[in-house]
Amino acid sequence: MADAPPDPKPLSPLDKDQRQGLKAIREFLRKRTSYDVLPLSFRLIVLDTDLLIKKSLNILIQNSIVSAPLWDSHISRFAGILTATDYINVIQYHCQFPDEMSKLDQFRLASLPDIEKAIGATPIETVSVHPSKPLYEALRRMLKTRARRIPLVDLDEETGRETVISVITQYRILKFIAVNNEHNTILLKKTVRDLQLGTYTDLAVARMGTTVLEVINLMVSRNISCVPIVDSENRVLNAFEAVDIIPCIKGGAYDELNGSVGEALCKRPEDNPGIFTCSEDDRLDSIFDTIRKSRVHRLVVVDDENKLKGVISLSDILKYVLLHGEEDDAA
């Protein structure tokens, strides 16, 4: 007769709290909708795909935004979302086809898929979610497609007409969790090291004197949206993000991409929150506390001497909160 399998090892109090906190947050996300994340008052700027790419850039800068939903007025349909990645693709097109520069100024937002194809970029899946669907569903869709933001699109069942309601970002969702679940996030006392949260190997880095174009090439080759800026001792000075590219090419000034990262960072808006750091010994509840109080888009992990150790993205945090141990919970 075969021996019975050994009893599973009992959970420690720390593990029990962690599991309880995650379970409660997931339950909260299943009960709340994407509508709930929206502020009481907000503005939405939607760009028509007939708009010139050059003009779209100026609109983003003038309105202090870094993305916008796209609308195809010819068929009255949602057509995707304009982000910094699209401008990176335009820059790559400029570099690969310098003789086409005169045409570039005449390209419209509708041309973005053609630009992707010309440079061999992987098309970004166009996803949206109905605002009344559970927030949990929107998050799962974001993680599956690696989207950092997702438009909320309503559909009139009688006419079949779509309406773009708003856009929710990973940051806004995490903020929503942090603000409304302090009694649950306080249970998440495991450290960054315990959770192996973030990326710690083969990190892309740059110096203040590195050109913007070199950093863009680094982002494209590594498929990342942020590059830590370090000194000769690997101490963290700042971080260059994909959205920092937008003011660099204002008015189609592609030649300025040969300028340094240090110069580009000076073009950030005054309300830019800068970078947030943490250590591997920081607990997840303290990270949620930081998100609750500040506009965090990622955390740079440093040691006691401020030397770079790793990077934690909002995707890393959301993936852990949503998916960690899910198989165990289902058992």
TrEMBL record:
Acetylation in keyword set: no
Residues annotated as domain CBS: 121-185, 199-256, 271-330
Gene Ontology molecular function terms on file: ADP binding; AMP binding; AMP-activated protein kinase activity; ATP binding; identical protein binding; protein kinase binding; protein serine/threonine kinase activator activity
Alphabetical list of Gene3D superfamilies matching this protein: CBS-domain
Pfam families: CBS
GO biological process: autophagy; filamentous growth; peroxisome organization; positive regulation of gluconeogenesis; regulation of invasive growth in response to glucose limitation; regulation of transcription by RNA polymerase II
InterPro entries tied to this protein: AMPK_gamma/SDS23_families, CBS_dom, CBS_dom_sf
Keywords of the record: CBS domain, Repeat
Keyword Repeat: yes
Cellular component, GO annotation: cytoplasm; nuclear envelope lumen; nucleotide-activated protein kinase complex; plasma membrane
Family membership: Belongs to the 5'-AMP-activated protein kinase gamma subunit family.
Protein name, UniProt field: Predicted protein
Organism for this UniProt entry: Hypocrea jecorina (strain QM6a)
Biological classification of the source: Eukaryota, Fungi, Dikarya, Ascomycota, Pezizomycotina
